[in-house]
Amino acid sequence: MEPVRTCVGCRTRAPRSSLLRIVARDAALVIDEKAVLPGRGAWVHATDRCVSTALQRRAFGRALRVSTPLDTAALDARTTRESLQRNG
Predict the structure, then answer these.
(1) Measured between alpha carbons, how far is 27 from 39 in angstroms, rounded to an integer?
(2) Facing residues of 24 across strands?
(3) Are strands 4-6 and 19-25 parallel, antiparallel or unpaired?
(4) What is the pLDDT of residues 15-73, one digit of tens each?
(5) Cα distances (Å, whole numbers) of residue 29 to 62, 63, 64, 86
(6) Which is a Pfam family this sequence falls into (predicted)?
(7) Looking at the predicted structure, is the pLDDT value of residue 79 above 70?
(8) In the chain, how many domains are there?
(9) 68, exposed or middle or buried, with CB in 10 Å at 0-12, 13-18, 19+?
């Protein structure tokens, strides 16, 4: 039985293996590819729609329980890169 997590973007439940784990490191959002970094994590589908919805709603700050503004450059770069590869 695989663990189930909730996407902070679309708020649907999904198996952990289908989601991307995000952690806060030095006031920046970091993608945890292997899901092994220490600390609290937020889970999101690796789609432009879910990531942008989570960023607009400021869901990462709430999920990670961080009160300071977070640098979202890593997520912005990833979604832009994936969009370019798909539309390519």
Answers:
(1) 13
(2) 29
(3) unpaired
(4) 999 999 999 998 899 999 899 999 999 999 988 899 989 999 999 999 999 988 888 88
(5) 13, 12, 10, 23
(6) YlxR
(7) no
(8) 1
(9) exposed
Alpha carbon dihedral 70, 42, 78, 52, in 10-degree steps, equals -80
**What CATH number corresponds to the domain at position 66?**
3.30.1230.10
User: Which amino acid does the sequence have at 85?
Assistant: Q
pTM of this structure: 0.84
Whole-number Å distance between alpha carbons of 19 and 44: 5
Range of the domain at 72: 4-86
Record the tokens describing residue 88, joined without a space. Answer: 């390519």
- Other beta carbons within 10 Å of 32: 18
Kindly state the DSSP code that residue 65 receives in the 8-state scheme.
T
E strand or H helix that includes residue 60:
helix 59-63
**Do 52 and 44 form a contact (C-beta atoms < 8 A)?**
no
